[in-house]
Amino acid sequence: MAEGYGGRGRPGGRNALYAALGAAAVALAVLLWSATGGSSEPGGGRGSAAPDEAAAPGPDGGAPSGREALVDNPLYGTGRLAPLPCPSPDPDVDDPASVERFLNGVADCLDQAWSTQFARAGLAFDPPSRVFWTEPGSSPCRDYPSEAGAFYCRTSQSIYIGTEDVVRKWQGEPNGAVYASLLAHEYGHHVQGEAGVLEYYHERRGQEEGRIAQNAWTRRSELQANCLAGVFLGAVAVSYPLEEEDVRAVLDDSEATADRPDGPAEDRTHGSAENSRRWVRHGLDEQTPGACNTWTADNALVS
Fold it and tell me: What angle do CA 228, 223, 288 make, to 5 degrees?
């Protein structure tokens, strides 16, 4: 989540390189074809407009604004994320310093990958600051530790993660892919902020009356961050190989952090387990931000 972006839930393994993704991609394509009435990709494919119809960057590489920032963002036309080297050995989850080293290594990869992608779009990009805490503290958005264990604060343009808290919350999960996915999700909110998405999203969400209507906007933002996390993990698979058990752990975790099916409508901010998993999977398969346009997706795909 951000400014309230944060709050992902729980667990998820690593050793059969990305082979499982091929077969699953076919199944996903069939599922999404039927779910979207003919489109095999959530969000209407790799952006709702051709690159030359996308919202132009603002002056001096400034982010686009208004509705175009959501639906026709220049970032959607930049193609696959650059597969930069990302050698990050799994952390020792019993050692907070090891967890912090792991998170910094993955964050370095995220900085490089998204800086390259924004340059392709002609957009300015500043990487987020990182606060990996072991002691209580305060951000402009909230105090920490927080129930979420991890969050993004747009005001400070920082990602906050408790190196002990997330391990506890994920019940000591030893698989580093789960923590990489968590970090990539929160980083996805920073990508949204730098691309101009968050500003218009907050504006439109604030105009809605009632929590339920506001939540419909929140789910699209959270599911887009899920997809952007998948884009990154899929793109770096060559040097940070996700094996079958890793992919399963990441996808299972996306379900565990989704809305409870029996929860009240006022609490439905992250999407159903099926849709949470679907958007991560879609990002893993497509590896391009253009696949993550949740803002034009059918309501059924962002419920």
Answer: 25
